[in-house]
Amino acid sequence: MYDLLIQRVDVLQIANGTPTILPQHDIAITGQRIVAIAPAISPGLAHETLDGAGQLAIPGLINSHAHIAMSLFRGVAEDVPIEEWFNGFIWPLETNLTPEDVYWGALLGIAEMIEAGVTCVADHYFAADAIAQAVQESGMRALLAWTLFSGADEHDQLARARQFTEQWHGAAGDRIRVWMGPHAPYTCTPSFLRRVGQTARELGVGIHIHLAETAAQVAQSMAAHGQSPVQLARDTGLFEVPAIAAHVAHVSSDDIATLAAHGVAVAVTPKTEMKLGIGVAPVTAMRAAGVTVAIGSDGAASNNTYDVLESARLLALLEKLRNSDARVLPIGATLELATAAGARALRWDDIGGLQVGARADLALVQCATAHTQPLHDPAAALLYSSQPADVSTVIIDGRIVMRDRVLLTIDKPRVLREVAARIERLTQRQTTQRMAVYPELAAGE
Ligand SMILES: [Zn+2]
Questions:
Q1: pTM for the full predicted model
Q2: Cα(183) to centroid of ligand 1, in Å?
Q3: What CATH number is attached to the domain comprising 387?
């Protein structure tokens, strides 16, 4: 007997950048996995059935770089450059956060992601144990990293990250995994990066870090260390384990070759990068060099949404514009950045596609909407026309977490109340206290 049978749904599969639709198929799920995809499977073989008629089944979207709990700071730092964004707003405000705030912020972000068809996220934040709690309860899948900064308490931070890894890596039936999260080369000294890399090797986990976000950061790295952030990360041992580098907007051809040689995945967060005016990774050159490029949202304080399809859409448009070539990043390849390539970036090999044997992480998307009809090309409708509200039902690890737009694992009214009750306290700004200091970097220095 199957646990769940989704009936008469159009199934989106993507292979080597080419989308295919299996029309009116059934998807059978047993336990955490997809066990059959075929037309007309007998409903008598399933404990539960879901009618998928008129809907598109898509692989659950993968958000390869986020700070989920920054949902709390959505809209607090608008139209300011990155230095002011960090030093004037985000890092002072984050000193107000308690682990309980982070927990409710995480649930808000996870609710938004599930509502947008996102089933897995690589998160990078502090109080990550509160995020792990939210992930565990909500049924989300996540790769978590506890953000680390250099400072007097480096030793304690590393010990806490180690303990967090030992407690949560593989937890919730392997829905939760943990990597190490040094923040960036401009907030971590080379010796600290070396220790973090060493710890990751000892624990057998990967590294998730921000790299080369701005031209000024690269210039500062060259001045201080005689090498780019990418080369510094390599030389401090961060690429000796699986790694996700977020942003990586400013790179040389040598940097791209280094990323490719070490299998470092790049999580591009185009909406943040465009909004802060800092530059977007040369995605086409990176992909041509064999670098795995995936899509992230970054935090809601810079992106404003956790809508991964919106970020993918923006990247495709930007790449077409930047290359003056409409053929760049076609639909299937762009959708892969948010699915199969995300799975490769997170080194999570049984998610990211709708195949027999894969983890049952998927979303059903309503196609009978005015903005997607007529449905000449379902993949095009998904990437260029769909809206998060078109996602009707979401399944993660075989469990229905949203059905007909109703979240089943998150008490959304309570989350909204808890967040609202915290906002006045959380938005008190005292710029004398900061999580870290963004260095004064003059462009072209
Ligand atoms: Zn980030």
A1: 0.97
A2: 8
A3: 2.30.40.10
